[in-house]
Amino acid sequence: KAEQIKPIFAGLPIEVLTLKEVGILGRAQEIDGSSMEINSRIKARFAWEQLKHKTWTMADDTGLKLRALGG
Question: I need a labelling partner for 10 at 20 to 30 A (CA). Which of 3, 40, 69, 70 fits?
Fold first, then answer.
């Protein structure tokens, strides 16, 4: 995902880094599943809380929608 997002910020003073690149291991555990927006917020909050130097964070939860599963 980071590689897909980096071109969006090209030319701006913004550096896009992955969790691994900033030394964060693991993943957000409390994914509630009620919406992709809520899951994204949970993931971004997890990353922000793990950072030693607080900065802007973002996350995505594109999820899968399958008609066979009612999505």
Answer: 40
